[in-house]
Structures are given as structure tokens and as C-alpha cells.
Amino acid sequence: MPPAPSESHAVDVAALRRKVAWRILPLVILLYIISYLDRANVAFAKLRMAQALGFSEEVFGFGIGVFFIGYLFLEIPGALLVERWSARKWFARILITWGIISAAMAFVKTPLQFYYARFLLGVAEAGFFPGIIVYFSHWFVQRERSRALSWLLVAVPFSLALGAPVSSMLLDVRWLSLSGWQWLFIVEGLPAVLLGVIVLASFTDRPRNAQWLTEAERDHLEGELAAEAAAKTIAGKISVWQALRLPMVWLLVVAVTIGNSGGYALTFWLPTTVKNLSGGSDQMTLFYSALYYSCGIASVLVSGYSADRSGDRKWHAAGGMMATGILLLCSTIPGQGFGTQMIWLCLTALAAFFWISPFWTLPSLSLTASAAAAATGLINMGANFAGYAGNHATGWLRSHGYGELQCLHFLAVCFITGGILLSFLRLKIDRST
């Protein structure tokens, strides 16, 4: 039930929003920075690891992609565990296991060991991202969720922009008879274990558990969220299994699977692409890679603010996805120097990070809590299968004689196709939210 008027007046709503944001977002953003860096740092390590271990482009493509197969297993259960059990305990388990496995990547010697380590890393991290989306629905009302999600997703370009120079320094160290690429995995993996312990001690599952809120603030926030959930129920309660059969949900699955095949492959193969296009050193390659990822930081924040302000999520997502593909194609125009290609790639980054946060608010717009959690898990399964498909396909193309421009054409077609599919989405959205 919504709070009584007297209770509402006793709460400074703006101050409450700020208190919740400052308590919830910084730690969650830090967790996602570490999460994304640990899944993507293989792209930086590859610059030395491939030569040291004699791995082909196809071995790397499959090894990068098999992470996402492992990730598929706990997507829906992970989202439901956050909804029905405990985000604190589930996230702590995820962080500790993935930190240990990520650090253990330093000791792989054969392609099979590489595949197993990447697969287990995906299993360990599974359910983290959809779980966070569900967790945000326990703290932020719909009209504020895109902005909260964009603050989370700024961790993606930030982690990669930060990871590039840090990885560049680590690649040149040699301690205790271990190479730089090995220390890269160890140094960037172990912080997740420490953060898992911190999460277990300090995370708060729901407003009703928050001792850092006053009783009036807890009641007000729980009342707002309950009223929002009740409005969706009145509009039409949908069970978990009904949600998983909705055409809307499956359109989102197919669109993100195709579009993200380009997105993940572009992220993981960018250092290799930049090195081949520029002909520069590893350090210069990682500098330009960091520049690309830095362009995405502002884009994520602008898209979340714009989507919440306008009430539109669909066209922010579909338009951003299609624009990514078009700008990526522009980088392949014949006769351009590397400087011009890098400008196009930086513009591509602005679009590539623009569509993500509006997209991930779409499942919760018209589905009730458990149904939205299950739908989010299913959609993220498609998004992560894309990580396998896009990376494996890119590795195959490279191993069979296709050049950088042909690979970029493939990624661009993925983005454009995903955006076109998303444009057919039909949602009943209350613009007042």
C-alpha cells in the first residue's frame, strides 16, 4: 500500500533519492567495473599471450566466446534468486568464485585449459548482470531506473578505458618468473575476492532491511515500489512462464542476440583491430583502445538521462544500435588513413554505448516483478550467447584469411540487423512513469 499523506510529507523525497543513490550505486558500479574488466582483459592479454602460448586467432575466438556459454547456465535462476532470495549472498558468491578463476587464467598452458578456464569464469559470473537489473527494481522506481542503469553501465567503458593503460603497464613486468600477461590476470582478478567479502558484510537487499534509512523513509520507498508493482498487476498479472512465451520477450532476445554479436566481438577484438590498422606498438594500441572506450562513458550517461526525460526507451535502443553499425561501416571506407579511421571508431563508440541502458529497462516496463526477472534472464542469455557467436565467428573469419575491414563489415551488419528488429517492438508504456 502507498504511504498515507502524513507519512509522505514527513519524508524529503529528493533527499531520500540522493541517499539511496549514494548508498547503492558506488559499490554496484565498482563491482561491475571489476566484473567487466575480468571478462574482457583477455583482449589486452592476447597481445602477448598469443605469442607466448602459440594460440591461433581461432583458438582465441573460441576461448573468448566459450565464456558466454558458461554464463548461460545460471542466467534465469540467478535473476530469480535476487528477486526471491538475497542479492547480498548471491553477489558475494559470484565475486569470490569469479575472482579466483580469473586469477587462475594466468596458469593456462594449452588451448583446452584456456577453454575450461574461460567456461568456468562464465559459470562463476552467471546471473550477475540480470541480478543487478532486478536489484535496481527493489530500490528505484521506473522513472529513475534508466538513469540508475546508465550509471551502472558507465562501468563498461570506464573499466575498459582504465584496463587498457593498467594492462599496458602490467604486460611489461616480470616478477617471480611469471610474464606480464600472467600478472595481468592475477592483479586484475584478486580484487573481486576482496569485494565479495565486502558485499557479504555491507550490502542491503531491500529498503525494509536498510538500517541506514529512517522508518519513515523505508515505509515511503517500499510504498512507492509496492504501488508501482500493484499498478502492473492490475493492468494484467503475468506469470514467469507466460512472460517467457511473450512475442515481445522473444523479439528482445533475437534483437539483442544479433546486435550484441557485433557488440561483444567489437569489444574483445578492438585491441587486435587497432594494432593491425595502425601498425603501432602494444602500448600505442592500448592507448587508442582506451580512447575508444573513453568516448563511451559520456554516451552511457547521456542516453540514460535522455531516455528517462523523454520516456522513450525503444528508439533510443534501436536507433543507437543501427547508428553503431552505420558509423562502423564508415570506418571501412577505402583510402582512409588510420587517423580518420580512429575518428570513425570513436564516433562508433558514442553510438555503441548509447543503446545499452535504455534497452535493459524495456523488460520491466510492462511485466510484474518475477516475470520481469525471468524475462531479463532469458534476454541476457541471448545477449551472452551473442558473445560466444560473435567472438567465435570473428576468430574463424580471421583464421580463414579475412582482413580487418571484412570483419568490421560483419560486425556492422549485426548491429544494423539488431536495431531493425528492435524497431518492430510494441510496448504499452505509461508515459507518466
Order of helices and strands: HHHHHHHHHHHHHHHHHHHH
Rg result: 21 Å
Q: Assign the CATH topology.
A: Growth Hormone, Chain: A
Low-confidence stretches: 1-8, 429-433
Number of E-state strands: 0
Number of helices: 20
Largest sheet: none
Shape: globular
Helix content: over 70%
Oligomer: single chain
Distance between the termini: 18 Å
- Going by helix content, strand content and strand pairing, the class is mainly alpha
CATH homologous superfamily identity = MFS general substrate transporter like domains
Average pLDDT metric = 84
What is the beta-strand fraction? under 5%
The CATH top-level class label:
Mainly Alpha
- For the record, the CATH architecture stands as Up-down Bundle
Number of domains: 1
Overall description:
With 433 residues, the chain is an all-alpha fold. It has a single domain, classed as Growth Hormone, Chain: A (Up-down Bundle). 78% of the residues lie in helices and 0% in strands. The chain has 20 helices and no strands. It has helices at 5-9, 13-53, 57-72, 75-84, 87-104, 111-125, 128-136, 142-153, 155-170, 180-189, 191-202, 215-236, 240-243, 247-278, 282-310, 314-330, 338-352, 356-361, 369-399, 404-422. Helix 2 packs antiparallel against helix 3, helix 2 packs across helix 14 (247-278) and helix 5 runs antiparallel to helix 7 (128-136). It is globular. Residues 1-8 and 429-433 have low confidence and may be disordered.
